[in-house]
Each structure stands twice: as structure tokens, then as C-alpha cells.
Amino acid sequence: RRLDSRSGLAAGLLGEIQTPISTEPLESVYDITGELGRGKFAVVRRCVEKATGKVFAAKFLRKRRRGRDCRAEVIHEMAVLETARNNARVVNLHTAYETDHDIVLLLEYAAGGEIFDHCVSEELLPEAQITRLIRQTLEGVHHLHQSNLVHLDLKPQNILLTSLSPPGDIKIVDFGLARRLGVVGELREILGTPEYVAPEILNYEPITTATDLWSVGVIAYMLVTGESPFAGDDKQETYLNVSQVNVDYSREAFSRVSELAVDFVRKLLVKTPEDRPSAAECMSHPWLWQLCLSPDPATTRPRTVRERSCGTKWTAPPEDPEDK
Ligand code: ADP
Ligand code: MG
């Protein structure tokens, strides 16, 4: 993945943070107890606060990358997390440290790991669990978009779970490519992971909130089928699959789930961004609510789709197209 330096501040990096960055040694406050994940410029380690025994995830972000000072990118990632602080579906930023090489973000620990593990496992999740996780993801994305933030790197590796079994609630992580829209003209030229990026990114066309909705479609496809919809044998083939929206909707691929699942994914994996539903519009898709209506032997009274029993804290009503 690449963050074009020319797009830098011009592409709307946030520069202001509230969280103080401590220069005292991290090791005096925390015990580092293992590695949780690793990317090109970051390592995430599990650590335990000595005073309280509380577990955190420490994301060590390199300040120099490819011989260039990237402190501004790290500050931006912190600022985005701060902007999303009231969003329960986004991982919480606890505090930050700075060493010679890194800025270290102390993040709320998501003990359940990546939903990616549920996309490649022999045993895929039951449909009712998948729709619950997609509803939560849409809640998080909806809130981000309301703050004019786009994530731009949504994929099953960046959606974590608070617990593994039974699967807990989702936490969105990794705001390295996230941007604020509408600050300085159009946003283009940000490249995520080929398998998960929308056609407009490959074509260097303007990036909007709809770009994230494409990724939600990819995530839903993967949770349902256990396959990555656009992955080819090489980068070239993957790009071609994305730009031609070459997706397998065969009965075999979707054998485990209802036809509504296919309908949901089909509405998101469309080439023209304007033709994709918004996060709020997605929330009213019947696929996400059908299994909440299944009869509950404990109660006989009829339930409505908006009841708490669905395990969602969703409160914002889906947008009414009549209102526009
Ligand atoms: P990168 O920018 O390198 O992709 P991420 O923020 O995505 O960094 O973190 C890399 C991986 O580390 C994640 O995919 C996940 O497996 C793990 N990880 C990140 N944050 C947390 C967290 N708060 N709790 C548990 N694991 C985490
Ligand atoms: Mg990541």
C-alpha cells in the first residue's frame, strides 16, 4: 500500500491532537507480553499496565519511512482516532508515547482478533452472526461518514472483535489511510490493498464515502462465502477483476445463506460510486434484520425489527429518500 507524499497535507491530513505524547519509557509503565500484528510501518504489541493489570494494544508506528519523516502521518492517525472517540465501533485511543524511532499508540485491546479469521476458517460464522457484525460495521462507518471521515482501508484484517467465542462486538482499527473529506478539494491517489479497493481508487477518480461502502460489500462477501471476491493469481488479475466487477454469485458460493445476502452484496459491489447505497440506507436492507425476526421460544409476543433483542445499539433511522 502506498501513501503518496505529494497528496500529503494537501489531501487533508489532520494536524491537531489533544492526547499528550509522553516521552517517559513505555517499559516503566507497561509489560510487553507479545505481538498482535504487524504491517509495513507498524508493529502492534500486547501490553499490560503494571499498576492496574489492564491489557492494551500498543501500536508502534515508525516515524521515518523510506528515508522520509512521517511524523505528520502518525499525528494524523491519532487525530482521526480522537475525532472518532464517541464512536463505540472504533477502537479507543488511551494514550501515546514517543521513542527515538516510534510513536506508540496505546489502544483499547480487542481480544477477539480479526474478523479475517472468520473469513478463512473451515467453519464460517452462522448467518445471524454475520449480519450482526455487518450491522455493527455499518454503524461505525455511518458515524465516521457523519464526521466527514472516510476510512479507505476497511478490510477483514482491520475489523476486530472484543471477544472471540462467542464473537463479541466489532472495533474498527487502522486509520492510517483515513481522510477527512471536503477540506481541500478532491481526494484521489490513496491506495489500499488491491483485493479490497474500489474501482474508483484504481482509476484515480474522486474518493467519497461510497468508497468505504464498496469495502463493506467485500467484507460481507468474505464472511458469507469464505472467499475474497476479487483476488486473482496476481496483482494484474486482481485489478482487472475489480475494475470489471467480476464477482462469482453462483449458488455454490452462497449455498449457506439466504438469497437476501446476495442482494445485499450486489447492491454494494457496483462500479459507479453514486449508485451504491449509503451506510444508513444499507441499515434498512432486509438481510440485516430477517434473522432477528425468527421466532423466539421464550416469548410469544411479536417482535419488531428495531428491538434491542437484535443486539444493536443502532438509533439513527435510515434516511428516507422522500426527504431529499
Ligand atoms: P497496520 O497499519 O500495520 O495494518 P493495524 O492498526 O491494522 O496496523 O494493526 C495491525 C494488526 O494488529 C491488526 O490487523 C490486528 O491484528 C492487530 N491489532 C491492531 N490493533 C489492535 C487492538 N486494538 N487489539 C488487538 N489487536 C490489534
Ligand atoms: Mg491494518
Automatic annotation (TrEMBL):
GO BP annotations of the record are: intracellular signal transduction; positive regulation of apoptotic process
Segments traversing the membrane: none
| Encoding gene per record | stk17b
Under catalytic activity, the entry for this protein gives:
L-threonyl-[protein] + ATP = O-phospho-L-threonyl-[protein] + ADP + H(+); L-seryl-[protein] + ATP = O-phospho-L-seryl-[protein] + ADP + H(+)
Q: Which domain of life is it from?
A: Eukaryota
What name does UniProt use for this protein?
Answer: non-specific serine/threonine protein kinase
Family to which the UniProt record says this protein belongs: Belongs to the protein kinase superfamily. CAMK Ser/Thr protein kinase family. DAP kinase subfamily.
Chain sites annotated for binding ATP: 59
What cellular-component terms does GO give this entry? nucleus
Organism encoding this protein: Cyclopterus lumpus
Q: Which PROSITE patterns match?
A: PROTEIN_KINASE_ATP, PROTEIN_KINASE_DOM, PROTEIN_KINASE_ST
